[in-house]
Amino acid sequence: MNANARPWGPPTQTYDSAFLKACRREPVPHTPVWFMRQAGRSLPEYLKVREGIPMLESCMRPELVTEITLQPVRRHKVDAAIYFSDIVVPLKAIGVDLDIKPGVGPVVAQPIRTRADLDRLRDLTPEDVHYVTEAIGMLTAELGETPLIGFAGAPFTLASYLVEGGPSRNHEHTKALMYGDPQLWADLLDRLADITGAFLKVQIEAGASAVQLFDSWVGALAPADYRRSVMPASAKVFREVEKYGVPRIHFGVGTGELLGLMGEAGADVVGVDWRVPLDEAARRVGPGKALQGNLDPAVLFSTPEAVEEKTRDILDAAAGLEGHVFNLGHGVLPTTDPDALTRLVDHVHTRTAR
């Protein structure tokens, strides 16, 4: 157990940070800011240290993970770091034959389509991801009072990669399995929930101050299908880490129709993409949750004046929220000017200083 953490409670050194206060819906000195994919291809220093190193290998080198995770904190002065990894890391760790192909994404050698295929998904142990524990120990020592967000892919999104064999536009194999063999589908998602829960536990016990569950592809589903076929597994993941007392964030893309259900699954903070204004998102989610978001990442390619105007609109929409963490409505795009991100953090901090 990291000295910076309690066995069942938030890390003490980061407890009073603006980010964790906002997640707990407490008064903050300013609106906290961090960006999904803030540690990545938009930073020249990231491209330099990653040069010639495959993505999955990068995720397994603690010193490299530490450096990459710290880069945007140093450059942008964001209010939280997010652990540098990939959602398929726990699948690779338990022996799934997959690789991350540049320009494509995760590709699975043998897609999961039958009940016999489930046997390839064994439980995840801390030893499987010892490099995560090591990297987070190094990171929390460096970050001090800045919180570290751990993360994992949600069961539906992991299942869609496993069933499709890679990224998919229409998720036809995934939906065919979900509708055609609901029991196999439920068993697959339940097993992935166990793996995901174990992966998040490793990160929290190593010192992560909060966790985010990414359900990148779940916006492909109708609400009734989400409630019946996905929500039980996501809820299981959130229950698995509830005892630790760290904020749990849930985010998906194109999930405007699912926001209420995603909060119901057990998140303390619901991430909102740019398609739904935050005040409307708050109505859909209901009371008792903080919200995260939600500037369109493409806005950052416009003029500084346009970015400030759009940012003001978001902060105005967030004015009545119980808690708000400023973020983009999806990840930082690879060709984003890093200076635009730095200016955005400063603008939000200055405009919301209390």
What share of the residues does DSSP label as strand, in percent? 5-15%
**Distance between the ends:** 35 Å
User: The biggest beta sheet, please?
Assistant: 7 strands, parallel
Choose one word for the global shape.
globular
**Averaged pLDDT:** 95
Task: Tell me roughly what share of residues is in helical segments.
Answer: 40-55%
What Rg, in angstroms, do the CA atoms define?
19 Å
Number of strands: 9
- Assembly category: single chain
Query: How does the helix and strand content classify structurally?
Result: alpha/beta
Query: DSSP helix count?
Result: 15
Q: Which runs of at least 5 residues are low in confidence (pLDDT < 50)? A: 1-7
N-to-C series of helices and strands: HHHHEHEEHEHHHEHHEHEHEHEH
What spatial order of strands do you see in the largest sheet? 1-4-5-6-7-8-9
Your description of this structure?
This protein is α/β, with parallel strands linked by helices. It is about 45% helix and about 10% strand. It has 15 helices and nine strands. It has helices at about 20-25, 45-50, 55-60, 60-75, 90-95, 130-145, 155-165, 170-180, 180-205, 225-230, 230-240, 260-265, 280-285, 305-315, 340-350; strands spanning about 80, 100, 105-110, 150-155, 210-215, 250, 270, 290, 325. The strands form two sheets. It has a seven-stranded parallel beta sheet with strand order 1-4-5-6-7-8-9. Strands 2-3 form a two-stranded antiparallel sheet. Helix 7 (about 155-165) crosses helix 8 (about 170-180) and helix 14 (about 305-315) packs across helix 15 (about 340-350). The radius of gyration is 19 Å and the shape is globular. The two termini are about 35 Å apart. Mean pLDDT is about 95; it is low at about 1-5.
